[in-house]
Amino acid sequence: MVEKYDPQMKNHQMSAWLDELKQKLNHMDDAEIVEHRMGTSASVYLVYIKTLIDPERLNETIIQPLDRSAGDSLSSCITNAKVSDVISIDDAEQKIMQGFVLLNDSVNDQWLGVQLENPLGRAVEPSQTETVIYGAKDSFSEQIDKNITMLRRRLPISTLKTESFTIGSLSKTKVVLLYIDGLINPEFVSLARKKINSVDFDQFLDSSQLAAFIEDHNHTVFPQFLQTDRPDACAYALGEGKLTLLVSNSPFALIAPITFFHLIQSPEDYFLRWPVASFLRLIRYGSFVVSLTMIPFYVALTTFHYQMVPLPLLYVLLESRSKLPFTPFAEGFFMIITLEIIKEASLRMPTKTSQTLGVIGGIVIGQAAVEAGFASKVLIVLMGISAIAFFLVPNYQVTKSMVLLQILLLILASFLGLPGIVIGLIGILAHLHALTSLGQPYLAPIAPFYGKDWNDLFIRGPLIWMKTRPKYLKPLRKWRQEMKK
Amino acid sequence: MVPYKHYGLLAIVGLMWMAGCSSPYVENNKIEEIAPVVFWSIDKGTEGKLKISTLVPPLIQEKKRLLSKEVDLLKQGGQEFNLIYYRELKQGQLRMLLINEELAKKGGIEKLINTILVDPDISMRVYLLIVRGDFDEYIKNQLTKQENQDYFLYRMLKHYEEHNQGEMSIVNIHKFMKKVYSPFKDPILPVFHSDKNNFNYVGTALFQNDKEVMVIQDVDDNIFQLLDNDHFLKVLAIPKFSISLGRIRSNVRMKLSRDYSSLSLHVGLKGRIEEYQGESNIQSEELLQHLIHEIEVYLEEQTSDLLKRMQRLKVDPLEVGTHSLKAFSKEITDEQWMKHWENMKINVDYDIKVHPLINGAVDVFQNK
Fold first, then answer.
1. Is A481 at the interface with chain B, CB within 8 A?
2. Domain count within chain B
3. Which of B216, B248, B272 lies at the terminal end of a domain, its last residue?
4. Of the candidates A145, A288, A357, B137, which lies 20 to 30 Å from A476 by C-alpha distance?
5. How far from the centroid of its chain's Cα atoms is residue A49's Cα?
6. Which residues in chain B have their CB less than 8 angstroms from residue A430's CB?
7. Are residues B257 and B192 in the same domain?
8. Quick check: B32 and A318 CB within 8 A?
9. Most A CBs within 10 Å, among B4, B31, B155, to test the A interface
10. Does residue B314 sit in the same domain as residue B350?
């Protein structure tokens, strides 16, 4: 609830607030309460946290103008920063914690706040998680205002609305909900608003934590909010009729509603020639299936279905497996876990030691495992293909969760063979079918079926054919072309 | 909330679908514990028994040995092999079934083949071979000479089956049984001769149902390849005229008279002269035409002779009987057809077109 400024409070606020603020800022080394003498006999109290504000700007904006002033009111002295009233002691505390400098105006007997937040943050850098060859190279950073700027520059329209929320009892994280008014289905906005308002937790350090609170299904490996640090991907999604959530101190925006197929698509798909983009997209879908099923297939064939292996390949399999001490399942499981250990280590290790890891990983996986009789040569080749295929899926979160699905299929394959893999795949499909993202079906436009949206599903059709926005999003403005409005 | 009913629904659909395709109880076949056999050789045993042999371990670089058992039933053989060998023998990768000619002549191989055919583990693409001589002796002798002899034998059959080589009649059990059960069609099988050191193609065995009645070889087999099997021959050597025709493609047209009393068989051949060692000057157009005419007459005689033998033995591997089928008319029975076939008058006409014997093999002269 917004508190109103009450003029009756004036008389006792000066001294009472100062005492109260002193108490609140007790044991805070970086909190400063400074009495500054102005040119005249009057003195001004400055209350701020020095680690949150920009000292240079403090000097330029407040100290120097105050020294030069000749009995003017405080607000008229400070000209190159926005001065706002402080309406309550809680507001005063909040403002201090947000990088404001509070000043008491003894003339008018009131407290004023000047925002001098230290613009600490990194420069705009290329995305590390979603790299593209063509397309814009900028990516979001931790500063939410900068991120909004990037989106506003891409969509310079007044209908791009931003709504702010503050979540987290400790972190006081700012969340901005962005959407294009008059285009997006209003249901999505109201649902998102409702969900964000109902969030109750202490700390939010990343947007993924927010996603965990507002997503429809928690117990799944599939993300229902697309996390991206690419402003172009966000702008495209907004233009399609989706909404975007920006979270302060997190370079990753959340896009919703999404479908399963968005996880396999890359922003670069829209920058390449359509046959090339379609081909790459098909390869990505293929590699998704290959990476999931290749090792389980190996286990199923070598454990149960030797009949299905072509004779020359059976020859190779028999040779490579004839002296191994482990069952195909144990061998496959052991190798998957080893690969995960190496992948995880390569992420956590300092970059300078990554070369050592590469060599050790290569030798352990490639050579030593075979020579020691731990794994067959065929499995090593399959592991290699499957590991590379994992990385073709552009969404890193999905890449990580796919390992779990792979292990699930591996276990099913080791018990039931190919029927096990089929049961597993049916289960995954059924699970995907049951998922929703912001209330929208996760397998759209396949189930429910929207024929026109298939133009941008498995293939990326020519842009000139994509005349309408995705139908499953039920946008208010169907046509992308102005003429057809 | 999520419609979780879909999970159950889809799982049920999936299970129903799978129940139609495969058994949910999978058999443990860890490949390091089994020995998938590639061939079974079936011979006549003593006291009316069957003698079954196979090579173990198949496809592994271990010392190989030939296992042989005398059994009453085919499956019994597989079972008894397991008792004398440390890996379980599996038939899922069976690729060749070699049947001794003595057995084939006796008839009744249909039952043997049916056993293989109905086994869900075994593919339909098992090659069927008739072996003249002792195959076991050949394999035993080859054990020390060449590794994986069984695999190479399979590759040879696969090569001649797939690439339309026009060299051998290669038949799998599906093709064979299809012909056994179809009216107006008599099956064929390739015949191989085997002794201690050799294993070579002899010709094509013609079957009356499942009983071998004749074997055609050499020129007759070549003619058979052109008439029916491949309609292609890589080389047709005719020593009588010192000539080899190469890459011959045939176009066979059959016409039955309305009362099934006569058949006119027209065979158009296109190919090139690849070798000539005779005295005639084939550079001369006239002499070349004369030579070709002589070849045509020779082939007509040979073909007529071959067909007569088929008529005499009441076999119709060329499926001439299928030409009696007409739309909107009742088909004749197999027995009726055989009666007609036996007494049919057959006119054979060959028409050979050859490319001239020059480099580059241009069609200029032929089109003159």
1. no
2. 2
3. B216
4. A145
5. 30
6. 6-7, 9-11
7. no
8. yes
9. B31
10. yes
Rounded CA-CA distance B126/B173 in Å is: 6
User: Are B42 and B114 found together in one domain?
Assistant: yes
Q: Which residues of B touch A296 (CB under 8 A)?
A: none
* pLDDT tens sequence across B213-223: 999 988 898 89
What strands, in cross-sheet order, belong to the sheet with A83-85? A31-37, A43-49, A100-105, A110-115, A83-85
Contacts of B36 in chain A (CB under 8 A): 306-307, 314
Give the span between the Cα atoms of A298 and A406, in whole angstroms. Answer: 12
| A443 contacts on B by Cβ (under 8 Å) | none
Question: Which residue in A has a C-alpha nearest to residue B15's C-alpha?
Answer: A423
Q: Mark whether B183 and B269 lie in a shared domain.
A: no
Does some domain include residue B10?
Answer: no
pLDDT at A57: 86
Question: Same structural domain for residues B81 and B183?
Answer: yes
pLDDT of A20: 85
Q: Which of A235-239, A247-251, A443-447 has the lowest mean pLDDT?
A: A443-447
User: Which value does ipTM take for this structure?
Assistant: 0.78
Say if residue B225 is in the same domain as residue B337: yes
Position B360 scores a pLDDT of: 47
C-alpha gyration radius of chain B: 25
Query: A interface mutation test: which of B22, B25, B32, B116 has the most A CBs within 10 A?
Result: B32
**What is the rounded (10 degree) CA torsion for A323, A329, A335, A340?**
-170
Structural domain includes residue B14 = no
Could you tell me the residue range of the domain that residue B353 belongs to? 218-321+333-368
**Residue B126 covered by a domain:** yes
CA distance B210 to chain A (A): 28
Report the C-alpha gap between A403 and B185 in whole angstroms.
56
The answer on B232 and B181 residing in a single domain is: no
pTM for the whole structure: 0.81
Max Cα-Cα span within chain B? 94
